[in-house]
């Protein structure tokens, strides 16, 4: 849409000889404002940026374990041992946040930095100090911390006891959360319990594309899903009962929220099924009126399990008490949205380990990025937000991740167009009544991109991973995002001066 506008203007100048003033006026009319009080931020995650993997008492997590024991399952055989070295460079990170003029910064905590045994019997002072230093540095400059308790780094010892497949994990996690609320709750008002359950369970337990690479599809992923939702709900209620009265913060979860579009009008039901097996698996139990896993999931998994010879559904059911505990257990829904797929009905055989009868894909003609899976389809965000409004009773939404990958380099016009187009689509949804309160760019800086290692870059700031001091340099997109945040508006043709990055007054 924004690009079209540019084209129209270009044609207007070329063929109709419109005056400059007229063009400038038309652009001004097309500048869209963000609502008052809208919060802009950027995000990172502990393993992806901190490094210092065994410093000051921190113990091994499942990502340390994976990268050290099976290094070349990461594309460039790299790891997060040093990453962007934010454990030592956090002051520079906060300086970057000030340069961008952000309202909030989303980062995550490393469980074993705080609790080296995984349990609350020993609180590691040095780890707590690190996060206190980071949080205090942010508070000093009026930047709201948005803290994720779990962005994929389970303590390795807890994994050896089954991790998210062991029902006791619900208490392990809730205990950890309580320690965190006690330590940081006075200053942190935005809490995300868990980042992307779909990736944790479906990729980590049902496949090999995330730690712990368990690859038990249709079994371990469902155990994980159930336990994770119970852990989340326990944590929500702990905060709500014991901490919210004095601190008044909010608690939610960040969902992996890709959009599934019907390939044709006949495929609406198929695409809907893909949504239920995707975001619905985790959002429906919390946000839908009736709670629990989506009906279609329960029916399909139960029928396929029976036909496959299992004595009970592979989808571990919730008790009624659990359904009630989980339903409503979030103050907002966090959406991590990147891309869109087309879906159609397909006859999946019982031998294929897939419980939905849908195939999804991305046409080659869709504009791509440096990541195979990431195609730039801004209208998918508009449709996703509309879906969330209709299906989950218009909850408060925070976009907790949205971003684009490139190779290294500072001239990132593709990323700029991605951000502009997606923010524009978000504004369409807001105008139609979607309750979106904040937007968080992924990522503040380049980082360890899981199994992609350092081969693709998501940062507004480039990080030089070849030098010991991990120099951070703003990309062109950083200047453009800064202007969006400063002006609280989307100017489709703003060209930044990328020579000097400064900190504006009041930041
Ligand atoms: C986010 O997940 C993560 O929260 C963040 O840590 C990460 O850095 C960011 O994405 C960028 O990747 O290749 O077909 O297996 C986003 C959701 C969904 C993105 C799965 C990668 C891989 C699809 N992810 N996808 S495939």
From TrEMBL:
UniProt KW Signal keyword: yes
Enzyme class: hydrolase
Top-level taxon: Eukaryota
Annotated protein name in UniProt: beta-glucosidase
Signal peptide from the UniProt entry: 1-21
Active site (UniProt): 401
EC number, UniProt record: 3.2.1.21
Alphabetically ordered keywords of this record: Glycosidase, Hydrolase, Signal
UniProt family annotation: Belongs to the glycosyl hydrolase 1 family.
One Pfam family, short name: Glyco_hydro_1
